[in-house]
Amino acid sequence: MTRSTTVKATLLAGLLAAFSTSAHAADLTVGANIGNVPWEFEDASGKVTGFEVDLVNEIAKRLGKTVEFVNTPFNGLFPAVQSGRINMAISSITITEKRLESVSFAQPYYDSDQSLTVTAASGITGLKDMGDKVVGVDTGSTGDMWAEANKGEYKLGEIRRFEGLQPAMLDLVAGRIDGYISDIPALLYYVKDKPELKVVERIPTGEKYSIMFNKDDPLAAEVNTVITTLKQEGFIAKLHETWFGAKAEDTTSTVTVLDMPKAM
Predict the structure, then answer these.
(1) How far apart are CA 209 and CA 14, in angstroms?
(2) What does pTM read for this prediction?
(3) Which residue, among 258, 130, 143, has the nearest Cα to 200 in the 3D structure?
(4) How many angstroms from the chain centroid is the CA of residue 232?
(5) Crossing angle, helix 235-244 and helix 51-63, to 10 degrees?
(6) How many alpha carbons lie under 13 Å from residue 183 in its C-beta half-sphere?
(7) Which residues partner with 161 through β-bridges?
(8) How many angstroms separate the CA atoms of 37 and 209, rounded?
(9) Using one digit for the tens of pLDDT, what is the confidence trace for 224-234?
(10) 209 near 108, Cβ under 8 Å?
(11) Rounded to whole angstroms, how far apart are CA atoms 118 and 63?
């Protein structure tokens, strides 16, 4: 073999090794709807951050695994975990009986409700003022399901669907929708430094957030055990203070160790 051939072979081997490494760079592939503030979003430097990102990174660390976050529209998270394209999914995903029929969840770590957000100039003070108004929701979310189920009671007008908070907020500020129904923690975080926007009503739904897996994936039980440890150590409660500026209540799933949810 000539020196030229040897060099070429060495370069080819290096390229193949680099490709193999990049193709298997992470032990865990995590789907997330990036832009879901404050759960998973890009900071000013372009780094993916957020409450659930911090949580998943710590879980992976405890499991001795590496993580890759894959930006995925909310509705795409469900087929992605079921097909095995991702190992697990986050994006303030609510545990529901319907979802438990086809996917698995670790124990919840956040209790949430929905909320109605409007512009301060609109004069809207709550759902009672939303008759014949255009309301925005996130496609396939609990807010979407709530709006459909309660459209008649509140005489809601058109329901428009968005892929995340940012495009919905742009349309709200521009007057293309009159109100936006979504998770209250995300909205409170978003509007705290925006006096032109107001969260005017909490919509009780009894929601609890968790990490989603393919149905009966053993990884769900492994992650559930780590979440128990992180609750007992106060790690998740500290995350709550970091991201929401308030102490987590002792009665919530942020602090209380719970069983893995099962389909009834």
Answers:
(1) 44
(2) 0.69
(3) 130
(4) 23
(5) 160
(6) 25
(7) 137
(8) 14
(9) 999 999 999 99
(10) yes
(11) 42
